[in-house]
């Protein structure tokens, strides 16, 4: 069979398979063209999830008759001339309009400024009609009907109208965040109207339009520079997370992208602060010389390739982690709002173990630990934080084991204004032997003692790992743990890695492990539970590079086993010491699994509950 040139219509239909995957792709290409044309207002209308109709109207520069005739021809564009390394526009390939016109019925109407009238051209299945005069305001109107009528097999791969409508909405939201000075209106019979007015240069206001007003209260600003790459934007607190990654937005030189390298870097930055299956919220702008990034990787232009991907990844991870560290113990205020709403609605918060609860009508289980509880400072389960030895932390600072307040006796706490002045206040009581209630100057704080102490141990363990100094304690009698032989083999193979954590073990026969030393900071821990958990994790990771690539995850598991347990009664000195250590520790607002360690309720909210405001 001889080689021959394909018809132009078939070439465009092949190209459409890459450029136009679904109705949302049509909206993306047309809206990007409108922005490149300098539009300040863009109206999008759809029907049947975009399969029956997509109409985009803009007030941009418009096109005259000659440009309009070329616009529907393949590889005709006004955005580049000779080079691909200086691309500063969203579109540049000249494929969108002819690709759309080859698989749908396309009508293109445009009028430049000062022109007496508009011109119109139509394509149906790739076949154009002659230009004709038309009535229109300045700008361009693109109308796409019967998408994929010329390639009906593609219709079978589309999802329901509702799913396609949601995809279109997401595309508009992403572009809207990138261009806050443009007004976007999305409407149609299959959706409620989405109106995003211009916010000028106020990016945060536009983000709030898209992600909700609570974003401002739960975000941290990021601003960093490394070599020739700049990073700015906002990231959410770890305790304010989502069930999917749809709330992660990245823009490279103003271009919305969904690049795997960037999303992977965001995930890595939150690796030790989020529970499995949860995703952070992030809106990031990356700016760099256009010559240092290739946006011509795929016709859809959603992926990019950086000349130095390691530099960009390191910048994202380092900037986010540094920002989270700078915020110290800050936690999401959303939980406090939810708590106040629960009070107002009369919901009862139940204790899973005892069934007791508390609501607006009264409080149950409020009891200060008795004075004769037999507590001794040197026997506190929190003692291990300051027992690590020289080089592990500031020994002159009182940790969990030391009394943080000069007058920390139970009779003096209620009048201790110095303690109340601290961000997390002064401990007042412990309820259900797990939650600490502290009074601040303008409200109260409810602390989960186990989650909070777990985070503190984790941070100390990470610090020791970085310093190469994790002290261990020799067990008087080795702990012998029976395990399946496969688990024993895995643990024995990773014994040298675990020794870096202060955990020394060896094989003890065919189906057992002998643990001879444990990290001293864990104190009197459940060695059997710790080893079984580590065995399960090693089994999961063994094919992915081993423990050295997952040091923080191992540290997290150890911290969980070395923390103050739920059900442990704490004396006032211990509770206040815990609060002071939280204030000094970065990231203490959430535990290693991403759950909040404390909830703050403002005095104004409490007074509203009792109709005092």
Write the layout of secondary structure elements.
Elements: H1 8-19, H2 23-36, E1 41-47, E2 53-58, H3 65-71, H4 96-103, E3 105-111, E4 118-124, E5 127-128, E6 132-134, E7 139-145, H5 161-178, E8 183-187, E9 194-196, H6 203-211, H7 214-218, E10 219-226, E11 229-236, E12 248-252, E13 255-257, H8 260-269, E14 282-287, E15 293-294, E16 305-306, H9 309-326, H10 334-345, E17 349-350, E18 357-358, E19 366-367, H11 410-413, H12 417-420, E20 426-431, E21 435-440, E22 443-448, H13 449-467, E23 472-482, H14 485-493, H15 495-499, E24 504-507, E25 512-519, H16 527-541, H17 551-561, H18 572-584, E26 598-602, H19 603-609
Helix pairs in contact: 1-4, 2-5, 5-6, 8-9, 13-17, 13-18, 14-16, 16-17
Output the keywords.
9-stranded mixed beta sheet; 3 domains; Ribosomal Protein S5, domain 2; 19 helices; 5-stranded mixed beta sheet; Heat Shock Protein 90; 613 residues
